[in-house]
């Protein structure tokens, strides 16, 4: 029995999907905050000068073939930061290894009042 055409198309579509997987680590001794709104989280290119507390790190494992969209990467950073109660996140390391994938490390922060 040969596979149905729709099943083959579905299997091909699944293998061609870009992905952005996240692992978070909250820092020890840092206050815990309620989850926030991801839409309000700022994605920054560097650590801000404004007074803030570091809440934890976010490690993203990102596909390179096919590459994930920048908008998807930023959205995942917003979601993970919001879960920690942060209101901004900045990238500290972005590494690409064609044989392994792309790894991005960011720090979630919460501004002080």
Describe it:
- The structure is a single chain.
- By secondary structure, this protein is an alpha+beta fold.
- The chain has one domain (18-111): Translation Initiation Factor IF3 (2-Layer Sandwich).
- The chain is 22% helix and 37% strand.
- It has 2 helices and 5 strands.
- The protein has a 5-stranded mixed β-sheet.
Task: Summarize the topology.
Elements: H1 5-15, E1 20-26, E2 42-44, E3 52-62, H2 70-83, E4 88-97, E5 101-111
Parallel strand pairs: 2-4
Antiparallel strand pairs: 1-3, 3-5, 4-5
Summarize this structure as a short list of keywords or feature phrases.
113 residues, alpha+beta, Translation Initiation Factor IF3, elongated
Concise summary:
The chain is α+β, with helices and mostly antiparallel strands.
The CATH first-level class comes to Alpha Beta
What about the largest sheet?
A: 5 strands, mixed
Q: Trace the largest sheet across and list its strands.
A: 1-3-5-4-2
Estimate the mean pLDDT confidence.
88
Helicity range: 10-25%
| Strands, count | 5
User: Can you tell me the CATH topology?
Assistant: Translation Initiation Factor IF3
Given as residue ranges, the uncertain stretches (5+ residues, pLDDT < 50) are: 6-15
By CATH, the architecture is named 2-Layer Sandwich
Following the backbone from N to C, one meets helices and strands in this order, namely HEEEHEE
Structural class: alpha+beta
